[in-house]
Amino acid sequence: MERSEHDPSPLALLEAMMRIRAYEEAVAGIAAGGNAPGTCTSVGQEAAAVGVVRALARHDRILTNHRSAGHLIARGADPGRLLAEVLGKRTGYCKGKSGSLHISAAELGVVLTSTIVGGELSLAPGVALARTMTPGDDGVVATFFGDGAACEGRFHESLNLAATWSLPILYVCENNQWQAFVHRRETMPVEHVRDWAAAHRIPAETVDGNDVEAVLAAAKRAVARIRGTGKPAFLETLTYRLRGHFEPDDQAYVDPAELAAWRARDPIDGYARRLRADGRLDDERYAQLGARVTAAIDAAVAFANASPYPELSELASDVYA
């Protein structure tokens, strides 16, 4: 039986992570061949994206950052339309005008993707305030950002406003250890970003961001708390960026031992092993999932390549200043 994009069953969670990984590796490969612009991937962070997004309802809203493909695909985005957008094609979510790092999908509740570090943090309170002013709207606004954005002043401004105005925001810090080419240990005097959230009197939790079931459970708790109180909550997912900051990137600045240790904690491989051990996955089913994911991404590449570019007459349409 086919699963919906919001299905939280174990095999659906695994397949969603596999689909994100396959899509991002395909995009990185196309970029490496010089046939697409460079991009920022979230390879290694799939459990954090899938776990949080699957805890959200359809009427909730998402604001995300430059590593957004995982959030979009977890939300149900069509990989073909995503890749068409990356290639600047008319059939993309933003009609080919956003490039690889600014894709938004209003029909999925993805309000925006910001490449300004912490830019989504500045806008989340406004989106949440609008929700509180709409009668009968109990929607949550989930905003994704990294540990680098948490070192920006706008991080504290956003949390202060959300706490003071009691705004229904789920702050999700994907602490992937690296801030572009700088390790977080060089920029942060604390081990956990959650400590800064707690200082704003926002309930905060840190979870293993490579354990999709743990992330899902923590996100569900946070979302329930927000719906019950109308106040913000904070979730820090400890994870790791297995590819470089921006494709192409050889990661020469990364300690090989550290990278190897985190590769051993790959969220997809680890979850597949757990499901096998629990008897919830066998070789045949795993092969079926892999074949379905491969077929979907192959179809996405074919669709994007065959799609037309926008006409010159469309240059100023849907563009606002």
- In terms of per-residue confidence, which ranges show pLDDT below 50 for 5 or more consecutive residues? none
Number of helix segments?
11
Percent of residues in β-strands: 5-15%
> Strand order within the widest sheet?
2-1-3-4-8-7
Task: Give the tally of structural domains.
Answer: 1
Which radius of gyration do the C-alpha atoms yield?
A: 19 Å
Name the helix and strand elements from N-terminus to C-terminus, one letter apiece. HHEHHEHEHEEEHEHEHHH
Named at the architecture level, the CATH assignment is: 3-Layer(aba) Sandwich
- What is the average per-residue confidence, as pLDDT, rounded to a whole number? 91
Classify the fold: give the CATH topology.
Rossmann fold
Largest sheet entry: 6 strands, parallel
Q: What is the CATH C-level name?
A: Alpha Beta
Describe the secondary structure blueprint for this structure:
Blueprint (H helix, E strand, L loop, with lengths): L9 H23 L13 H8 L7 E4 L4 H7 L3 H8 L23 E4 L5 H14 L8 E6 L6 H13 L3 E7 L2 E2 L2 E2 L10 H6 L4 E5 L3 H18 L3 E6 L17 H8 L3 H11 L5 H24 L15
Parallel strand pairs: 1-2, 1-3, 3-4, 4-8, 7-8
Antiparallel strand pairs: 5-6
Report on this model:
By secondary structure, the protein is α/β, with parallel strands linked by helices. The protein has one domain: Rossmann fold (3-Layer(aba) Sandwich). It has 11 helices and 8 strands. The chain has a 6-stranded parallel β-sheet with strand order 2-1-3-4-8-7, sandwiched between helices. Strand 3, helix 6 and strand 4 form a beta-alpha-beta unit. Helix 1 crosses helix 3, helix 1 packs antiparallel against helix 10 and helix 2 runs parallel beside helix 3. It is globular and about 50 Å long.
